[in-house]
Specification:
By secondary structure, the protein is mostly helical. Helix content is 45%, strand content 8%. The longest helix has 21 residues, at 37-57.
């Protein structure tokens, strides 16, 4: 038998360690997570039993919710919203912390829904928790092969979608009341649809004014993307040249490291007479303007860097040009001597015998 085979003590650790070859041929050398020899021996026996059952009977070993969360967070670590994902997983521990993935069924999902609603949370908040559970279980099933099935998780209805955007006149009024550095950020957001962190982190070495393109390496979904720059965006960038050698947007020549929505932002909103408006709503404004101008949902998806059409379809309601002919079918004829071309073209053809 090799030295330290089985359960053994390492001088540099407070836990007992395991060194063994499992029935499936896999070699393991890891901490047992306990200083109690009986518990460590039991844990090793479980590992061997799980490996034997998986090898000979195709039975997958039990995996816990907490094991899955550790791997899930590791995969999500590069996201801008990582802290939110951490917070949601930590919150879900009160419902799922002691459960194995196979134990997560419709009843446990229902307990999450009821528990959160009783606390007074809105459907939108509850849906964030449900979406995280669904995303994690899908990974465990489809990518990690830890489970074969998962419960069907439906999001709650009644979630009110935020629909806040500015008219052109409101946007100009807001810009006029912003201090110079903030006005530049607002104008660039309205021209490109970029998020606040994407704008403040934009560096000159990722901008090509001749080719009218910027490249974002730090995005919300972790996927780098190119941003085409229209004349409005080019104008803003040209005004920023020479203020900082590295960053495009600065405050008094230094990088903007604090939140944009500070006293200057709220003061500008108040002076412009604009209520219930966030900086991120500038992205909604940009997308709404695009759809009103006839930009297709597929084009908007690529422009905004969304991975799917789900988030883009919310703006479909702002484009009505494809319904213009249908709307004109019931309009009043303005001149009795003029043939209503739309009505004429829409009449069904009569087949002659």
């Amino acid at each position: 038998m090799a030295r330290n085979e089985g359960v053994y003590k390492r001088p540099d650790s407070g836990h007992l360690w395991i060194n063994a070859t499992l029935p499936n041929g896999k070699r393991i050398r890891q901490s047992s997570g306990t200083a109690d020899r009986a518990d460590a021996e039991a844990y090793l026996a479980k590992l061997k039993l799980d490996a034997y059952r998986e090898t000979h009977f195709g039975i997958k070993p039990e995996r816990t919710w907490q094991e899955a969360v550790i791997r899930y967070l590791e995969l999500k670590r590069t996201l801008k919203s990582f802290s939110d994902v951490q917070r949601i997983c930590r919150h879900l521990d009160r419902y799922l912390g002691d459960a194995s993935l196979r134990q997560i069924n419709g009843d446990l999902i229902w307990s999450i829904v009821q528990g959160e609603l009783k606390k007074g949370n809105k459907p939108a908040t509850v849906n964030r928790y449900l979406a995280t559970v669904r995303s994690l279980l899908r990974m465990a099933r489809d990518e990690w092969q830890w489970i074969d099935t998962m419960p069907k998780i439906r999001l709650l209805t009644g979630e009110v979608e935020r629909d806040r955007w500015l008219t052109r006149e409101e946007a100009e009024r807001l810009i006029s009341h912003c201090p110079g550095h903030l006005a530049a950020l607002v104008r660039f957001a309205l021209a490109t649809g970029c998020r606040a962190s994407e704008i403040t982190g934009l560096e000159w070495n990722r901008v090509d004014l001749q080719r009218k393109t910027a490249w974002l390496n730090k995005t919300k979904n972790g996927t780098p993307r190119g941003v085409p720059l229209n004349e409005d965006a080019i104008e803003v960038l040209e005004e920023q040249q020479g203020k900082n050698l590295k960053y495009c947007f600065t405050f008094r020549g230094a990088p903007i490291q604090r939140a944009i929505t500070n006293t200057a932002w709220y003061s500008a909103l108040e002076a412009a007479g604009i209520e219930d408006f966030r900086f991120h709503d500038l992205r909604h404004t940009w997308a709404s303007w695009h759809r009103q101008a006839g930009t297709s949902c597929d084009e908007l998806k690529d422009l905004g860097g969304w991975k799917s059409r789900v988030m883009v379809d919310r703006y479909a309601k702002y484009a009505t040009e494809h319904l213009a002919v249908a709307a004109s079918r019931v309009q009043r004829v303005r001149d009795e001597n003029v043939v209503d071309l739309v009505t004429f073209l829409s009449r069904p053809k009569v087949q002659r015998a």
